[in-house]
Amino acid sequence: MAALIPRWVRRLIAWRNARTGELPYKQLERRGEEIYDEMYETGRPHGYLSEIKECFEAAIDAAERDGFTKEARRLRARLDHIATVYRRQFT
């Protein structure tokens, strides 16, 4: 999954991580949640789910890679919930 994240994004995350001390999976989760919020602010939510999935799947991979298996399971459950809500409301 890391190959799907552009190199410049990975460098930005590493830079922000070094600056803030925040774990990479937390940054990706936060961005996924921001996109989820944006989805409700727009009249056309089409395409948002794929961006949310990319963020959460990258966060899950990062959490697993760093040994945070409980966090990875929590993130997977959150992504499943978001996808279910999206399908119920927007399809």
Q: What does this entry look like structurally?
A:
The chain has one domain. The protein contains 4 helices and no strands. The chain has helices at residues 7-20, 24-41, 48-65, 69-90. The two termini are 27 Å apart.
Brief summary of the model shown:
The chain has 91 residues and is mostly helical. It is built from 4 helices and no strands.
Write out key terms for the chains shown.
mainly alpha; 91 residues
What's the SSE blueprint?
Blueprint (H helix, E strand, L loop, with lengths): L6 H14 L3 H18 L6 H18 L3 H22 L1
Helix pairs in contact: 2-3, 3-4
Q: Which structural class matches the secondary elements?
A: mainly alpha
Classify the helix fraction into a percent range.
over 70%
Strand content: under 5%
User: Runs with pLDDT <50, length 5+?
Assistant: none
Number of strand segments = 0
Order of helices and strands: HHHH
Indicate the radius of gyration in whole angstroms.
13 Å
What's the pLDDT, averaged over the residues?
85
The general outline is globular
Query: How many H/I helices?
Result: 4
Distance between the termini: 27 Å
Number of domains: 1
Main sheet attributes: strand count, strand direction, barrel closure: none
